[in-house]
Amino acid sequence: MHSLLGDHVLQRLQQETSGTLHQRVFRCLRYAIVEGILAPMARLPASRDLARELHVSRNTILSAYEQLQAEGYVDAKTGHGTWVVPHLPDAFLKVAQEKANTVHPSSTEKKMLSRRGASLVGYAAASPYQWGAFVPGAPDVTEFPHPIFSRIQAKLNKEPQIEQLIYSSAGGCPELRSALADHLRVARSVHCDAHQIIITEGVHQAVDLVCRTLTDIGDDVWIEDPGYWGVRNNLRMNGVQMRPLPIDQHGVVLDQLPKGSPKLIFVTPSHQYPLGSHLSLERRKQLIAIAREHKSWIIEDDYDSEFRFSGLPYPSLQGLEEDSPVIYMGTFSKTIYPALRIGYIVVPKALYSPLRVAAAELYRGGHLLIQRALAEFIREGHYEAHIRRMRLLYGKRRKFLINLISRYLGEDFLHEYDDQSGLHIILKLPSHCDDVAIASSALLYGVKTRPLSQYYLFSHARAQRGLLLGFACVNEKDMMMAFGMLLQCLREFGIEKLN
Ligand SMILES: Cc1ncc(COP(=O)(O)O)c(C=O)c1O
């Protein structure tokens, strides 16, 4: 059983990323004291008990307690335990400053926010960990050919054109839209020309744009469940009603639809996020027919389809039928690097003009010089070459991770929906497991994963348990070490290979 303090420390540790383990535990406990979670004169749990709850050594807790005592937050007497002092020391001020940089606002800060602002912050899911074993979906940003891209940028930046230095109302850099149209027609079978493409700051902004322009508050939007939290949070902010659609091995299940008509239907047909299935041809046709019947727009989030490790890449849903009611979204976050913040939407011709105007009104487009460099990078063939090279590299890393799982845990831990694509796999856990506690505990070992159950719209018994393991940004040596730590952590939760 977890105590309130144990739960608090496990959660808080996800935000305390720097320093040694005992320093991180110390800061979590200090936070609990300063925030009043541990009241003045409250007794701290016995070091042995807290160590057991947090799955760390007793020495880690003892060191954290010692530091709390040295800084005057707690007092201790041999044989009588450790308790919070009645009056906090001056160092409190230091903590208050640190708090300004943390993700979750205090209750006082929350009072300053609007209801939707507080809701957004309350549901915040973006992790402070974006690099290392096993951050899901992170590409290996060190492998990008930075010298080539810099050379292109340097050449273009020397004599920029005026249009590249002023606000854009054209839906992004024309050369990039044109290079993308050519690329998407060939690589993803998308029906499009440059006058259907709007450049955005990633899928996140694209989702915001379509929601603001195509839905009203209270409209129904159907989403995959489990699905991407980034889309969910965006939809929540736009005030729509999210209706979940379940997932099976053929993708989104369409035989028991929610009541009413959705304005938008969000899907990840090439590689369902996060479970990994591919939407079957039969269901693709069914989905388009449903959207036509309800006069809805399907939003195809094609976030990582470039990475398919066996067989040919699947063509897009958008390209399946002429004039399909599909808005296609893509991103360079996985193929180049996330901080580039460049993505795109391909819209049916009738929507291009209003959405382009809306994008200019809402976001005042910019970053045109880097978009121009990206166009050149694609035109010169470097983009395709980089994707091909990364496909090989990630394919090897993926295989390595799958072998580790099969060998040290067993085939039962591999998810049956896996379709050999994307930048993460799911380590399937028995249904009784608390995957949130396991992920928090893994973090104490320096292993960054995300619990599968948190990708569901509501917490319910049907939610599958597992851990998302990203493999793309980790070399085999680091993967091996991190996997060893993960095994140790799983063992503490009673999970190990049966034989
Ligand atoms: C399903 C899904 N869509 C989109 C994105 C990327 O969005 P962006 O282009 O805003 O980086 C991610 C990132 O992990 C994702 O998992």
From TrEMBL:
Q: Which GO terms describe its molecular function?
A: DNA binding; DNA-binding transcription factor activity; pyridoxal phosphate binding
- Identify this protein by name: Transcriptional regulator, GntR family
- Which Gene3D superfamilies does the record match to this protein? Type I PLP-dependent aspartate aminotransferase-like (Major domain), Winged helix-like DNA-binding domain superfamily/Winged helix DNA-binding domain
Keyword hit for DNA-binding: yes
Q: Which PROSITE patterns match?
A: HTH_GNTR (PS50949)
Q: Which residues form the HTH gntR-type domain?
A: 19-87
Question: What keyword terms does UniProt attach to this protein?
Answer: DNA-binding, Pyridoxal phosphate, Transcription, Transcription regulation
Q: Which domain of life is it from?
A: Bacteria
Q: What is the lineage of its organism?
A: Bacteria, Pseudomonadati, Pseudomonadota, Gammaproteobacteria, Moraxellales
Family of this protein? In the C-terminal section; belongs to the class-I pyridoxal-phosphate-dependent aminotransferase family.
Organism listed in the record: Acinetobacter apis
